[in-house]
Structures are given as C-alpha cells and as structure tokens.
Design a protein that fits this description.
- With 210 residues, the chain is of the alpha/beta class.
- The chain has eight helices and eleven strands.
- The chain has helices at residues 10-21, 56-61, 72-78, 118-128, 143-146, 161-165, 185-190, 192-208; strands at 2-7, 38-41, 46-51, 67-71, 83-87, 93-99, 111-115, 132-136, 152-157, 169-177, 179-183.
- Strands 2-3-1-4-11-5 form a six-stranded mixed sheet. A five-stranded mixed sheet has the order 8-7-9-6-10, covered by helices on one side.
- β2 (38-41) and β3 (46-51) form a beta hairpin.
- The protein is elongated and about 65 Å long.
- It starts with a strand and ends with a helix.
Length: 210
C-alpha cells in the first residue's frame, strides 16, 4: 500500500484526476459530501489522505505519507527533508514582489515587506544585499501597502486580478511556482518500486495532456 498525502481543493482534484487515469483510482474520494479524511483502494494498493496543502510536506517528511503533492512555495518556505521527484506542471503561478506602480525603493532605510512567506522573502532580498523588515501576515497581504503597513508585498500571483483590483502591480518575479511530487526519504528506499511506478504514471499523464 502506498500512502499519498493529497492536498485539499482544486490542486488535489487535478492531481487525483491524473492519478485515477493512471490506474490509482479511489471512487470514494469523489464523494464531496463525505467528511472522511482517509480513502483507500486495496485492489489498487493506494491510500489517500486529504490534508491541508501547507501540511502535505509535514506528513511526507514525518513518514505518515510515503508521497505527496506540494507547491514549490511550501518546499522553499519550510525546506522539508524530502525528495522532490517531479514538477507536475500544474498549479502554476509566480512568487512575486508587488506594490504600487510608482513605488520608489528608499535604500536609506530597511524595506518593509509584508508576506506569508518570510523565508522566501528574506532569502530573495539577502541575495540582493537589501536590508528588509519582514511583516508576517496570514490574511489579505494586498491590504498592507494600501494601509501603509508595508512598502511592498511578497506573495503568490496567479492571474494578477487581485493586485489589479487594489491598484497594485508586479514589481519583480522571485520564483516560478508549481506542484511537485515529493517522497519520504525512508519510503524511497523501502517502497522504491511503488513510488517510481506512480512517478512514471504521472509522467505518462503529463505527456498525454501536452
């Protein structure tokens, strides 16, 4: 049995579609009214855990799941000790620095950066040799520059519509983001054949949809 940490929401739905088409279907997962969190198909040798996207890497790193699908943003932010096996090419977006169109960077003082991703923001600006003041937020990051809490924000941008509606623009692109297929290091040794079979199945699905 291979244990899969599947993120809840649209990303998980897309990934499951690919896995189901590749022979790892689990019909019980399609029942949206169900409150169950664990679904398995013994015949196919697969067990799915439905977890919050930000928790996928934790379940995989700690060995509760053999494999999982996590966004590159989560892997960069928390640096879990897992194997990153495949870029699935879905959930594509960008980690960006955004602010007002007329933003001017006053280098005489630390740049105030509001973000949900302090590790990513800090690493990006350290690479530029820029001194920053990180403001960690959990809600609507776009509100920070509007209320002059921050100079800029570091956040995920998919379509850019939220930025546009709040009169903000992308100033710099930090990192391209997409969903990654990851594996637990111990599972990689003891379930190598099963994990590689799932990886190849996902690759085949990617080829079919190109």
């Amino acid at each position: 049995m291979i244990n899969v940490a599947l993120p809840k929401g649209r990303l998980g739905d897309k990934v499951y579609e690919k896995l189901a088409a590749a022979g790892y279907e689990c019909p019980e997962l399609l029942d949206k009214k169900s409150r169950r969190l664990v679904f398995e198909n013994k015949e196919k040798g697969v067990r799915y855990f439905s977890v919050k996207p930000t928790d996928v890497a934790v379940y995989v790193e700690r060995g509760a799941a053999d494999v999982g699908i996590a966004g590159k943003d989560i892997l960069l932010e928390y640096a879990p000790d897992v194997y990153e096996l495949l870029d699935l090419g879905i959930g594509v977006c960008r980690m960006c620095i955004a602010g007002y169109p007329d933003f001017y960077d006053d280098t005489d003082r630390p740049l105030r950066v509001a973000t949900k991703f302090p590790t990513i923001a800090r690493a990006y600006y350290e690479g530029k040799g820029r001194d920053i003041d990180i403001i960690k937020l959990h809600g609507s990051i776009e509100l920070a520059p509007i209320l002059e809490l921050s100079d800029v924000i570091c956040d995920i941008v998919e379509t850019g519509s939220t930025l546009k509606e709040n009169n903000l623009v992308v100033l710099e692109e930090v990192e391209p983001i997409s969903a990654r297929f990851i594996a637990n290091r111990i599972s990689w040794q003891f379930k190598h054949e099963e994990i590689m079979a799932m990886k190849h199945a996902l690759e085949a699905q990617m080829e079919e949809t190109r």
